[in-house]
Amino acid sequence: MGSVPAATPSVREIWRAQRADGPAAVLAIGTANPAHCVPQDEFPDFYFRATNSDHLTALKGKFKRVFQKLGVEKRYLHHTEELLRAHPEFLDDEAASLDARLDIVATAVPELAAEASKKAISEWGRPAADITHLVVTTNSGAHIPGVDFRLIPLLGLRPSVRRTMLYLNGCFAGSAALRLAKDLAENNRGARVLVVCAELTLMLFNGPKEGSFERLIHQGLFGDGAGAVVVGADPLSPVEHALFEMVSAAQTVIPDSGDAITMHITKGGFGGNISTRDVPVFIGDNVERCLHDSLEPLGIGAKWNDLFWAVHPGSSAILDRIDTVLQLEPEKLAASRRVLSDYGNMFGVTIIFVLDELRRRLREQEGAGGAPEWGVVMTFGPGLTVETMVLHATGHMHASP
Ligand SMILES: CC(C)(COP(=O)(O)OP(=O)(O)OC[C@H]1O[C@@H](n2cnc3c(N)ncnc32)[C@H](O)[C@@H]1OP(=O)(O)O)[C@@H](O)C(=O)NCCC(=O)NCCSC(=O)CC(=O)O
Question: By three-state DSSP, how is residue 261 classified?
């Protein structure tokens, strides 16, 4: 008599076994910047000298006035005066400079991305080969194979790592990648997702031009950096620790705001528009509705000042608007303001720096016995798009090395 075959599991049983038991969580964070640091008060001199524009004294005066209002004290930039001298075509948006810019970012973006990733993997505590999924996002490039592919040898990832490359998501790119990572981690038992965002503003670099206000914002606000996060569900004790549990994630579009921020590739790098007067107003008018839409279905009825906050610091005017609308206590957006001040707006990378800064601040508050348990991530970008993620702090807020 033959043995009785084991019953084949049902599709539902297979589906259930493939899924994680608990929520996705942030397990580690790493950040990196280029070495070239430019204090904001020295930037107008650097910029007008490097672009042979010192004769435009009135325009330089306007740059200085507006730069002081952005909330930035210093930034890190890949491009130096030496690099700009070697590429005079980068000073003129009518010149065909796209190929030269793409050549530079093709190497520099993966290298910066790898630096941040190595720090995240080292803090995580497991080998790089245990990463099962890779989600990479950048606005700084347009290559196939892209940064995701280059990271496999740079980090020693498995060739079978499942890659997703997100190009041109503007400043909400970091949140979009984290939202995707949450779904991947919860829907693939044992998955460990490496999220990587990297940006170089070289794609936006141009000389000053009368009447081009957005150029002034492009040059004065944005900075270069990379951030990496390891995301996974059901942490393997004692090696892994959840920093933030990722409770829910949402994305929405603000009605009639489609022209407020636009970006497109041109022969001279990136073109586009930022309606600097409208963006803070659109965000201020919609922030409460987005928050209610995220928190109410979860049954979280906390007051705004009972939460911790990780908000994309688009500029200090945007943070001021959010402060006013939500009537936040001054320290609530302190992590966002600190990152804006020390690094500038690094597009989608910025929110990873804010999370890193926030966990340091929460650790200090835990020590003092009063850290909030629940919090919100909010980022904004072209669309205008608002990304919201609800987080739960776990009490493991150890800082990165
Ligand atoms: C640009 C600002 C710093 C200006 O600050 P204030 O409004 O307080 O300044 P202000 O009104 O005194 O103006 C200072 C000087 O700038 C001039 N000015 C201001 N706005 C202008 C505009 N839109 N066009 C032309 N000139 C303008 C004023 O005339 C004045 O000139 P004068 O001194 O000669 O009188 C601020 O509005 C701001 O931070 N806006 C939001 C920026 C933004 O959109 N960030 C999002 C980045 S994108 C992002 O994060 C998402 C993404 O990219 O995806």
Answer: strand
Distance between CA 103 and CA 107 in Å, rounded?
7
Domain boundary among 210, 231, 252: 231
What six digits make up the tokens of 67?
Answer: 């730069």
Q: Check residue 6 and report its DSSP letter.
A: P
Which domain does 27 fall in, by range? Answer: 22-231
Q: Is residue 3 part of a domain?
A: no
CB distance 344 to ligand 1 below 6 Å: no
Please report whether residue 371 resides in a domain.
Answer: yes
Q: What is the pLDDT of residues 296-353, one digit of tens each?
A: 999 988 899 999 999 999 999 999 999 999 999 999 999 999 999 999 999 999 999 9
Same-domain pairing of 351 and 272 = yes
246 shares its domain with 151? no
For 186-208, how does the pLDDT look when each residue is reduced to its tens digit (9 = 90+)?
Answer: 999 999 999 999 999 999 999 99
For strands 74-76 and 308-311, give the pairing.
Answer: unpaired
Percent pLDDT > 70 in the chain is 97
Q: Which residues contact 20 (CB under 8 A, 6 or more apart)?
A: 185, 186, 187, 188, 189, 190, 191, 233, 234
Give 213 Cα–ligand 1 centroid separation in angstroms: 8
Q: Per the structure, how many domains does the chain have?
A: 2
In a shared domain, residues 190 and 275: no
Q: Check pocket membership of 62 for ligand 1, CB cut-off 6 A.
A: yes
In tens, the pLDDT along 26-56 reads 999 999 999 999 999 999 999 999 999 999 9
What is the complex's ipTM, to 2 decimals?
0.93
Same domain, 220 and 246: no
Q: In this structure, how many other beta carbons lie within 10 angstroms of the beta carbon of residue 37?
A: 14
Mean pLDDT of the chain: 94
Q: Is residue 236 in a domain?
A: no
Q: Are residues 277 and 378 in the same domain?
A: yes
CA of 294 to the centre of ligand 1 (A): 30
Determine the Cα–Cα distance for residues 339 and 352; give it in Å rounded to an integer. 10
Is residue 197 annotated as part of the catalytic site, yes or no?
A: no
For position 325, which CATH number holds? Answer: 3.40.47.10
- Treating both helix axes as pointing N-terminal to C-terminal, what angle do 98-124 and 147-155 enclose, rounded to 10 degrees? 40
pLDDT for 187 equals 98
351 lines ligand 1 (CB under 6 A): no
